[in-house]
Design goal:
2 domains; eight-stranded mixed beta sheet; 6 helices; Immunoglobulin-like; single chain; about 15% helix; alpha/beta; Rossmann fold; about 425 residues
């Protein structure tokens, strides 16, 4: 694993004798860390295009571009200077990263394997003529920090990956529940001092899965608590979408869950009946595919296909979170076009209040869409949905969505540190 490069220009190649593109404090960083993009050596007030380009794990190409005007000294600093036009306008220090768009429509940036960095190629181009390249630099954005160990786990019904921070610990433990397998969020949390096990809802094709067994995820909770470096009294859960209602059920039915992060999910058990100890504990909230709304873009809106969980015939599907002994962090995007997340969050908050509970906090993000991820990855407006079988809209406005990701990522870490009591919860990530 490479160490920090102190000189941000080490990975830059000068295309002109004067123009220089630098990434500070280093051209190598962790995925969830910002970089400062600076250009020098331009003519006074020169207008140029800054571009970024990246290829994901499946070979999909993503690009972004913005136009900037240099100051009187021929310098541009994205922390200070506004984009005049392009994929975004205004002062957006990380705009070239979050505004990366797929060259092919309805493709989501795929970064699930933690071993390879997210490589972004930045460049500066003349505005005139064919846009000759003046300078370039490569940003390597690593998911796994120095000293973090990655260990695949296949034990009983557990199929996942365990990430452990460097040092003796003790560390707080978090179970990352993904709808489909991804190592990104788990690995980045491990960099911040958490022992994290990531497991997927679906290890098989979704259409082959007929019921969901809470016991499989209970095994993962028990496994985490037995890890030698874990010092927290219980475990935390982080989840989004379908995985979020599984997290609610774990908090309600399984001992040892102390802190649950629910992101853009439902308040009821969805898609499949839920079993625990060979008995059905929750039926599935049904959906009506006739309520899928096609759009001109070719992606459909599925927000209203799920039945109302508060309707009399659906109330049995509501997860009884009022039984939970741990704490909740509910995060809902107001422009989620996949679930009616804000309404589901409001229902849960009201229900907990009615039961005299104060074990929760909630946060709402105007302008954000469904796919709230760790920050500085490309914003995803639409992509293929494995359960629906066609592209769907996720919602959100790029700038607001990107800001929500930065805020929520910090909030998640603060929430876990507050509620997963441990002797040593601070472990500075080193690359």
């Amino acid at each position: 694993m490479p160490k920090f490069v102190k000189n941000g220009s080490l990975l830059s190649e000068e295309m002109s004798s004067q123009v220089r593109l630098r990434l500070l404090p280093s051209a190598r960083c962790l995925f969830d860390e910002p970089v400062q993009v600076k250009v020098s050596g331009l003519r006074s007030r020169q207008v140029v295009a800054l571009r970024a380009r990246s290829t994901d794990e499946r070979g999909m190409v993503f690009t972004s571009s913005a136009t900037y005007r240099a100051d009187g000294s021929g310098e541009i600093d994205l922390n200070r200077d506004p984009s005049l036009r392009g994929n975004y306008v205004g002062v957006e220090p990380m705009g070239l990263l979050w505004s990366l768009r797929p060259v092919t429509l309805h493709k989501r940036f795929q970064k699930t394997n933690s071993l390879n960095p997210h490589v972004v190629k930045f460049s500066v181009h003349e505005q005139e003529g064919e846009g000759r390249m003046l300078a370039k630099a490569t940003n390597e954005r690593f998911l796994i920090g120095d000293g973090v160990t990655r260990c695949p786990v296949k034990e009983g019904n557990i199929h996942g990956v365990l990430f452990t921070p460097p040092g003796e610990g003790p560390f707080p433990a978090v179970l990352d529940l993904c709808t489909f397998m991804s190592e990104k969020r788990a690995c980045l949390l491990a960099n911040r001092g958490f022992v994290v096990l990531t497991v997927a809802m679906y290890n098989d094709r979704p259409d082959k899965v007929k019921v969901m067994h809470l016991d499989h995820f209970e095994e993962a909770v028990d496994f985490l608590q037995q890890q030698p470096k874990v010092g927290s009294k219980g475990v935390g859960l982080v989840s989004r979408s379908k995985a979020a209602d599984i997290a609610l059920s774990l908090a309600a039915f399984v001992p040892g869950v102390e802190a649950t992060v629910w992101i853009n999910g439902c308040s009821a058990n969805t898609v499949l009946p839920l079993y625990h100890r060979k008995k059905q504990i929750l039926p599935a909230l049904l959906f009506d595919i006739s309520k899928i709304i096609p759009t001109e873009s070719g992606a459909s809106m599925v927000k209203y296909v799920v039945q109302n969980p508060l309707a009399e015939e659906s109330k049995a599907t509501l997860v009884p979170i009022e039984r939970a002994k741990g704490h909740f962090l509910f995060a809902a995007a107001e422009d989620d076009l996949h679930w009616d997340s804000k309404a589901y969050m409001d229902e849960m908050v009201e229900r907990l209040k009615r039961h005299g509970k104060e074990n929760f906090e909630s946060v709402c993000y105007p302008g954000a869409g469904h796919y709230l991820e760790p920050p500085y990855g490309p914003y995803c407006p639409s992509s293929f949905h494995g359960l629906v079988g066609k592209p769907v809209l996720w919602g959100g406005e790029p700038r607001s969505h990107a800001a929500a990701e930065v805020h929520l990522w910090k909030k998640i870490q603060e929430f876990f540190r507050a509620h997963l009591s441990c002797d040593a919860t601070q472990s500075k990530a080193r690359l």
